């Protein structure tokens, strides 16, 4: 764009000697004028055209709007003309940059975080589990029905709505996929495990209802944690418990990866996972673990998930992304479930992502509840 504007600027200011675009030559590079040629007029041997009097712009051979080759006025060859020409070139990019609006610097409320994405923000507004401060919507998308719904939700909760440019949203969520909406709110925390043991939540082990809890040991990737919560919520898991040590907290990235399930699904935490499992075993719960490589499991029976029968309150324990279950946790399991592959696997691609494997296992187990009509 700058290169296309240069000839027009030059012609408008009368700075260009030749109609050749950008590549101009200074007067020092021009051949000397022919003998008998004056500084102000054409050579004596060339006839003047009609109206070609002094100051008319030269002969018919001189391009209209350009100074004559021998003219010493505002040409680029003169010091004043050269400086003016260069200053005009410098002003072009500066003028364009000045027209661009700088991103708005938004001060965050102390102790807040930025949720992003349609699912997390909508559910956070509707569930009232967080303190909400401000809702940010993309300016150009305000006519979309979903954005109108956001405005109504925010008005019902008394949350201020700010319409900002996409750059502001990008800065708020640090370049994550925000879908045109961000929400400033207080963080969600893990619930205490004691709350999960209150009557009505954990005392249904009498057999009236099949219970299944998902226990996560040292899941560190927020995308994996979000996907695990989404699958657990969808498939009907009653509770999710995570180890407090070396585990991912409940961040906006987790909420986005869970498609907002984190906003409606309680997540509990414990500082002593082994003691928790021992207590549940004493209450009559069955504990099953998982293993990507069944041949590495020792002292615990390994069966296919297709052979498992769910007939009592159940805890499914999932290990970390790289190491799997710790040995202490694995030895507390009654059995270890394995997913049979559908083909001979090459080394290096002989396992599944932890969230994918968990989804398969939970579906295999929870589908038994639906078959039994519970």
Automatic annotation (TrEMBL):
Residues 65-74 have a biased composition (Basic residues). It comes from the Eukaryota. GO terms for cellular component: mitochondrion. One of its GO terms (molecular function) is rRNA (guanine) methyltransferase activity. CDD domains: SpoU-like_MRM1. Residues 23-82 are annotated as: Disordered. Keywords: Methyltransferase, Mitochondrion, rRNA processing, S-adenosyl-L-methionine, Transferase, Transit peptide. Its main location: mitochondrion. The keyword Repeat does not apply. Transmembrane segments: none annotated. It is found in: Mitochondrion. Belongs to the class IV-like SAM-binding methyltransferase superfamily. RNA methyltransferase TrmH family. This is rRNA methyltransferase 1, mitochondrial. It comes from Pipra filicauda.
